[in-house]
Design goal:
The chain is mainly β and 175 residues long. It has 1 helix and 11 strands, in the order αβββββββββββ. A 4-stranded antiparallel beta sheet has the order 1-2-3-4, with no helix packed on it. Strands 5-6-7-8 form a 4-stranded antiparallel beta sheet, with no helix packed on it.
Length: 175
């Protein structure tokens, strides 16, 4: 029996709303992402099988249907996930930024059966001239501290910037 063209695309997975790649967590769980409208949906599976999900915002420098490339930076098991999500930049005239990227840091606090974004920070942007150093992110699990190093930071445009983020005992970034 012949299948309509659109049905064959769905069957092949070509019209799916978004790819969902599972990334292993150091604790044994996983995190996956998908695109829903102009947001990124993160699904977190704990080692014990429980699942939490949340949708996170992107800014106007990211195309609304762009898929996230998610990377796990660090984890405090059952308390905190530290992730980056990277997207292609929306193009500007004269081909500027067509090969560029927009990257965000997300700290997700896991508490009381919920996942909550407790920090959202722009790490890199072709459109806004924000650039991480190498290494740009350094996670120290023993002290629950994340260091961010920019060649060109988000606060003082065009100048180096450093930020230290400590994760408190409640799993959220300390002020």
């Amino acid at each position: 029996m012949r299948m309509p063209y659109w049905a064959s695309l769905v069957a092949a997975g070509l019209l799916a709303a978004a790819p969902a790649d599972q990334i292993a967590l150091p604790s044994g769980g996983s995190v996956s992402s998908s695109t829903v409208g102009s947001k990124t949906r993160l699904e977190i599976r704990a080692k014990n099988g429980s699942r939490l999900a949340l949708s996170v915002e992107r800014d106007s420098m990211v195309a609304s249907k762009a898929f996230a490339k998610v990377k796990v930076i660090g984890e405090i098991p059952d308390k905190t996930l530290i992730l980056t999500d990277t997207y292609p930049s929306i193009p500007l005239g004269m081909s500027y930024c067509q090969a560029g990227e927009e990257q965000f840091l997300r700290i997700i606090t896991l508490a009381k059966g919920q996942a909550r974004e407790t920090l959202h920070l722009k790490l890199a942007s072709c459109r806004e001239n924000i650039e991480l150093a190498d290494p740009g992110l350094v996670w120290n699990g023993d002290s629950a501290t994340l260091q961010v190093h920019w060649l060109e930071g988000p606060t003082n445009k065009g100048k180096p910037e450093d930020r230290t983020i400590h994760i408190g005992s409640d799993g959220a970034p300390a002020p």
